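Figure 3 (text version): structure tokens given as input.
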């Protein structure tokens, strides 16, 4: 006499959990929030001399399963370099546009391309138009490895 889970309730619980994890809830300023980036968490990197490198896998201040900084603001026409430094590549941390379970989240025309080459440790993306462009590590997004580039 064991306990049996009802498949319909298990499916409902999974759907609710995924919806909560991937939702784009409104923020205090009325804008969308993606990948855990609330308005107060964005770091301004729009100055001409600012570093626009987002480290991952232990590079540039990141932990093994995080991006650093994860939430940045840049100006249209500027680029961001995603870098694993000397030890991490896109094979272990595949970069993809969007939010967990929502690859088209954010503004249309996300210039971030899915990057999975294990030999590649750095990729530079040019952001020509204003918008909100979320990104994730396809392998570790559920653990919070995600971020957003906000272009003004």
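Below: residues designed for each position.
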């Amino acid at each position: 006499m064991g306990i049996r889970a009802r498949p319909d309730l298990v499916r409902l619980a999974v759907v609710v959990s995924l919806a909560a994890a991937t939702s784009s809830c409104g923020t205090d300023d009325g804008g969308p929030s993606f990948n855990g980036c609330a308005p107060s968490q964005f770091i301004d990197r729009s100055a001409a001399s600012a570093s626009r490198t987002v480290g991952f896998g232990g590079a540039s201040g990141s932990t093994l399963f995080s991006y650093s900084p994860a939430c940045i603001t840049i100006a249209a026409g500027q680029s961001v370099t995603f870098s694993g430094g000397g030890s991490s590549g896109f094979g272990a941390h595949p970069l993809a546009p969007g939010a967990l379970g929502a690859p088209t989240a954010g503004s249309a025309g996300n210039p971030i391309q899915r990057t999975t080459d294990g030999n590649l440790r750095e990729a530079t993306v040019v952001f020509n138009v204003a918008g909100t462009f979320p990104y994730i590590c396809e392998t570790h997004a559920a653990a919070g490895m995600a971020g957003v580039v906000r272009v003004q």
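Strands lie at 43-44, 53-56, 67-68, 71-74, 78-83, 95-97, 122-127, 131-137, 146-151.
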